[in-house]
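Suppose a colleague, Dr. K., hands you the sequence of a protein chain of 143 amino acids and asks what its three-dimensional shape might be. Before reaching for any lab equipment, you can write down a predicted structure in token form. Begin with the sequence itself:
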Amino acid sequence: MIPVKTALGQQVLKDRSVELTLRQRAALIVIDGKRSIADVLQQAGVQPEDVSRLLELQLIEGMPAPGSVPQVPGPAVTPQQRYAAAYPIAARLTAGLGLRGARLNIAVEGATCYDELVAIAGKIREAVGTEKFAPLAAALQLR
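The predicted structure, expressed as tokens, is then:
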């Protein structure tokens, strides 16, 4: 959790309208909405009880840490969109094989939909190797 000052907390720093201990005031000063509670405890030299008291007084509130925010799935990608993204990658990979990949290149050029491109993806992986195949696998969303 990342603590952030409330409007009341900012006002209390200015006018000292709420009686705080030196440690609580130090913690309130250090809290900036960027540091985690662990960082605040370390930098201000305060105890967890001091931060808890600030929460009770509603001088600070907790925001979830950036990494703990649940990821909302994006819009679903249609097979046609995957095909449109993957086709140029597949064509570039097979064209780079030269005469060795002529038949595979023709197969890629003949693929007219996502399923047909997925059907020849294994052959492309064998021909170019797993490392070079990775962008195509990502575009096709293969696991």
